Amino acid sequence: MRLKAILADDEPNILRNLQVVIPWEELQIDIVGTAKNGVEALELSSLLNPDLVMSDIRMPQMDGITFVEKLRQINESCVVLIVTGYQDFEYARSLMRFGVSDYILKPINYEELENTIRKLVEQMRAKKQSKYEEEQKWGKMKNLAYEKILCDVLLNYTEITPSTLLPIDEIDLENLTYSFAMIDVDDYSQKSLQWTEEERKLWNFAVRNVMQDSLTDEKLKFKVLQMREGEWCLLIQSEASTVGHAPPCMEDLAVKLQNNVLRTVKLGISVGLYADAVGIRQLANVYKKLQRFMQLSLGKQQSVLHYKDSKEPSDANISLWYLVEEIVTGLKQPNRTKAEDALDRLKSLLEGLPDSSFARAYQMLHFLILHLLRELREMNSIDSNEEEEVWRKLDKSESIQHLLQVMVQLVAFGLEGTNKKKNSELLMTAAKEYIRTHYSTDFGIEDIASALGISSSYFSLLFKQHFGETFVEYVTKHRMELAKSMLLLTDKSITDIGKSVGYTERRYFTKVFQKFTGEIPSEFRDKRREGY
C-alpha cells in the first residue's frame, strides 16, 4: 500500500536533499507536495490528505508549532515528523502533546532520518492494515444485521418501527425501495431426494454463491436471502422515488442468473419477477404473492415469470394453496386442530369439484404435496424413511383419492414430528441456554438453528411465537442489559465490555448501545456512577 507525504522547510537546499537522499520509492511513498512555510503546508495538507508530514519548526508566515496545531483540526491521523535545531529541542518536545510522532535535530543526519522514517512507515502500515480489518469486520456486521432485518420483515416476524430496527450507519430503511425477484430450483423436491442433508446444504450454498458472484459483476446494491431450501429472494435496493417502477434490467438479470447457475451448478432455476418496486412495509405481502405465484405455475422449467396483481387467479387452485398454507401454519405453531381442520376442508373442496376440473386438480394436488413435503423438511419434522415412503406412494398414485391419502399421511408425519421429535418448548429452552452461554461470541440465527437441528426460517418462527420478539431484538436487548451492568459494576474498558457481550467492533457496540439507551456507553457510566 502506497503512502503520501508532504515536506515543509523554508530552506530550498534541505527540501531538495530530502527528496533525493531518502529512498521514497523503495518505501512506497509518494511526495505529493512541498512547502516553504506553514501556510503552504497547511493548504497542501487540507487538499491532499497526506499520511506523513515532515516539517521544520522555524518557518516564515506560520511556524511549525502553529502549523501542527491547525493540522490536527483537519487531520487527526496524519503522522508528523518535526525537524528542529538544538536551541529548539525542548520546544520541539512540547509538540508531542499535539501528536508529533518524532523529531530530528539539525544538522540532519540522513541515515538516522531514513531509519526514523522506516520505523514510522512500518507503524503507519500496521495501523492502516488494522483499520482496514476493523472496517471489514464493521462492514460484515452491518451486512449481517441488514440481512437479518430483511429476513424477519419478509417472513412477517417483526413490526417496522424505528425502535425495532438496529442502527446500520446511515441506512434509512423506510425510505428505500426494492425490485423483487424470487428464485426457485426447478423440481427441487424430486432432485434433492437423492442428496444427503450435507449434500443439500452444499448444493444450496453453491447456487447462492453463483448468484452472488453474478450480481456483484453488475455493481448493484442487492441481497440474496435464502428463505428455504432451493428458494431465494433477490432484493435490489433503489431510491424511494422509484416506487411503482421496477428497473428494466430485471429480465436480463434473471436470464443471466439462469445461465450462470445452469452452466456452473448444472441446476435449472425459474425466476419470478414482481412488476413494481416496493417499500419495506410491502415486502412480506409481496413475498407471499410471489411464492404462491411461483408454486402455482405448474410445469415451469428454466422460466422467467412476471407477476402482476391484476392477473391474480381466482380458481380452485388458489383455494387449494391457501388450505395447504393453513396446514403448514398449523404444523409450525404447532396446532393439531388447525392443521386437521384445514385438511378436512381441503378434502371437501376436492370432492365438490366438477369432473372437468379433476385433471387440473390432480396435477395441482400432486404439486402441493411436494410443497408440503418441502416445508416439513425445513421444520425437520420428517425423517428419510418417512420421506421415502411418501415418494413410493406418490409414484403409485393414480387418482385424487390416492393423493389425498398421501396428504393425510404427510400431515400425520408432520404432527408427530412437531409434537414428539422437536417439541417447540424444549427447542426454545435449548435456544435460551445457547444464547446465555454464547453472549460473548458473534453467533447468528444460522449457528443456533444448526445446533438445534432445524432450519433458520423455522427457528425464527418458533422464536417469535415463544418470546414475542425476533431473535435479533431479543439477543440485542439482553446484550445491552448485560453491558449496562458491566459499565456500572466493573472498571472494564468500553472496548472490552463490547467484546464481552459479542461486539468485536467498538463503534458498532456504541451505536447499538446508544440506540437502546439514548446515551453512548461512557456517558451512561459517568452519569450513573455519580450516584453510586
TrEMBL record:
Highest taxon of source: Bacteria
Membrane recorded as keyword: no
Keyword Magnesium annotated: no
InterPro entries tied to this protein: CheY-like_superfamily, Homeodomain-like_sf, HTH_AraC, Sig_transdc_resp-reg_receiver, Tscrpt_reg_AraC-type_HTH
Ranges where the Response regulatory domain occurs: 4-121
Domain (HTH araC/xylS-type): residue spans on this chain: 429-527
The protein's name in its UniProt record: Response regulator
Species this protein is from: Paenibacillus sp. SYP-B3998
Lineage: Bacteria, Bacillati, Bacillota, Bacilli, Bacillales
